[in-house]
Amino acid sequence: MAGKVKNDYLELTNIEEQEKEVERLSPIVEYLPALLASKKATRAEHESEQAKLLMQLKMLKKNAEEGLKENPPYIKNVSAMLRSAFAIAVEKAFPKTGVAKLVQVGPSSHPRFGDYQCNAAMAINKALQNSSLNPRSIADRIVANFPIDPFGLVDKFEVAGPGFINIYMGKEFVVEEIRSYMINGVKPRPVKPLRVMVDFSSPNVAKEMHVGHLRSTIIGEVISRLIEYQGHHLLRINHIGDWGTQFGMLIAYLKEKYTDGFPDRMEVHELQESYKESKKRFDSDEDFKKRAYQAVVKLQNKEKEHYDAWKWICNTSRLEFEKIYKRLGVTILERGESFYQDYMVKIVKFLESGNFLEEDEGRKVMFPKAKGLIPLTIVKSDGGFTYDTSDMAAIKQRVEDENLDWIVYVTDGGQATHFQVIFDCAERAGILDRTKVRVQHVCFGVVLGEDKKKFKTRSGDTVRLRELLDEGVKRARDKLLEKGRDKEMTEEELLQAQESLAYGCIKYSDLAHNRNHEYLFSFDKMLDDKGNTAVYLLYAYTRIKSIARKADVSEEQLRDYAKSSAFEISHEKELKLSKTLLKFPEVLDRILEDLYIHPLCELMYDICTSFTEFYDSCYCIEVDKPTGLKTVNMNRLVLCEATAVLLKQCFDLLGIRPVSKM
Ligand SMILES: NC(=[NH2+])NCCC[C@H](N)C(=O)O
Q: Can you give the residue ranges of the DALR anticodon binding domain (predicted)?
């Protein structure tokens, strides 16, 4: 029931945490039936060991109550709760054998095996090597020791085959959760807030932002949203490539070309052309090379003329980047390589004084601890710094000045070794302690065109993101017109719908794939309204939202109904949809571990297909033809609304904006 205080000790996600809790709680759980039987402890009992445990339990309950007062009910991770409960069961069944850590619980592969499965009995059998036991008897013993279940999480167990434990969820629990989704929304479990940085997007100045940067932007933004949603403090950082000797080259070239001052506006591709030209000159013309080097020195000393020229270059690029971010709904703090100039000087001294650098043909390099990896180039033979130098400086600044607990870098898979070596060298230099600071490189595969080759224009150039987005919007509009949607929408609504659809599709088709794999960019595929696409999901969402509208029932009424004892879930398809919704917390928790986002898309798709099944077999509104009288099934409407609430939350996390008409 709403407001009923529950003791949520079972919900622990992390295995060490679980183990500690098991150790702490198993005696308490043992004594719990006794506690419940004798509500008041006698004086004598107070002096006994048992009473101490009862006190402990009281404290635990009190903490839980207080926790709940502060934090409105949050969504529960069923897998994690079951895992903790099974860990307790195993600890009770086989005390002090250390096998509780073998417990794994996952969704079952088929409904005939229940909702979830625990297959620990086999692994425990192996670990215990006790000939008088077999996996089945182990499974029986685990089930017999399952702790009290304050949530009614489990309806029944079944020990099957060689020792699988099939778990059937309790309906009461499902009802309570759906009730809470409806009344309280989908609030994640409160956690200790961490300081987190996501370093993503990060295009390069004076170069076109390419599809790789688009992927980094899309994935990085979603990771940021997920981390924020979980309640952590987040810093989104755009580590743009805006520093280095190439800028001396470019400035020298531009000064030569525009003797009367730089133009007011310039497209990034023109800037990129100049960049290519300057590189040619640099490689072929000794005089130019000298001037380029002088320009670098002047830039590094921040001499006005050169510094202004550099600012002009950065600004030209920035205007272009910002247009893309605005369209995609991304806000990110620019803190490029140039930000670390002073830190780079310092890190070189630091590494030098620690004797971490070695001479190599005039360069100063740093080897990682791991064997077989290429070293970082910290100082080039011309004295300049590199990408490696900036990342070493950045990691020090991030750990020490920003005090971060968690740093995420989002780039293509081609940089996996770079980050491996950076993390390794940072540890070697004592800058980073990976037991305290979590560093994660989130990589992704290359983007392919419809011809399955690297995504390029026909002439072999980089595809301009602005043009790509424009094409997406045009295609989305065509799609809407093709379906005749324009007849039901004002021009304003159509504009909103086409943008939501275009950007939604581009984002979703990227996110729905395992990020490690290559990804085929196809407007035709992403704008398909069948299958796991944004179009399908957005339509489904709009349809769900329109049901309550048609029924003429307000959200307020639905909430009131959900609070009442009349609310129930009965039809098999209602239950199936509900159980699919309850998968959200476990998907969320897993994503926050490995930062693979596609399971969230899979879940959204499952929700929409379960919804369709439910909607096909369960009337929400029945109209009596002769009289025209409407009968509204409030239970089902609540379920529709809970589905909508969760889907909306998922769209928000993915940065996709559903519109009321589509
Ligand atoms: N800290 C970092 N290295 N962030 C990623 C930078 C990505 C780089 N500018 C590129 O375009 O590939």
A: 537-662
